[in-house]
Amino acid sequence: MEYMEVFAVFRAILGRVYCLVSLCWILHVGSFIHLFAAFFTGIPMMTAIDFQSTLDPKFNPTPTNVTFMRGDLAILSCSVENLGTKYVIWRRTADPNPLSIGNTVFVADDRYHVNYIDYRVQWDLYIKNVSRKDAGLYECQVSSRERNIRRVVFLTVIEPPATSPKPTSKPKILITGSEFVEIGNKIYLMCNATTDDFPNDDLDWFKDGHEIIQNKNDQHITITKFVSLIDKLIYSVLTVNNVKMEDAGKYVCRTSDLHITSTLVNVLSAKSSIIRRSETAETDSTNGYSSAASSLYVLLPLCTIPWTLYILVST
Hints:
By secondary structure, this protein is an alpha+beta fold. About 30% of the residues lie in helices and about 35% in strands. α1 (about 1-25) runs antiparallel to α2 (about 30-40) and α2 runs antiparallel to α3.
């Protein structure tokens, strides 16, 4: 029987300790002394709880001047102790209507949100995607008849630093190869394009405005391409076999990002070349004959002078 009585007393003591710790957690450490006195003096527990409501609310130190860039999440902090049964109200100083009461937002703007941090007794006003029109004075107020328990927070919104656009690198594109080709020979043209970051995806060939498409069954035109990721270049070799007169024209090389370069290829006829060479030889022959005749015309009178003098002396 004595064992049961001791157990009952011990159980009652544990129950009171549990209630004491729970209430201290709810009412924070500021009420611990009063609850401890209530436990040992026998003063009713409700009287100790009511004692906290008689304390004046007190603001804890939080920033009163905050700055955020446009588009960021703005956070305005407010921490209040000894709040009791009162509420924390957020409003703009110039607007009598509240933005929030407790954790409830009263504006039709989903950018506003109140975040309550229990262990700090702190009510933070969040403004998502803050803009210049959100700048100004905000008021964290404790609900009371006098409306004199308040903390003012000034919000400044600045523009993000201007970033200049990254200049796009213009590829260096170049064509090298034959400019004069005789009929029956080959045209070799090489186009290469280099960039500062990544090589172009492709190179296309055009002749007189028409795209050149390689036909695997026709070896008259062949196109070979090569890409180097290390050197950041792409090049293409255009070969025209057994050149004809109609292969002459303007050849254009174009990159995949539409940068172009061009060259003009002339096809020479072998017959016309022979005619030009024969005309040149005939001209050289005629010029040689004229030069010899002119020399003879000058020397002939000089040869007759000694004979003329001999005849005059003999007479």
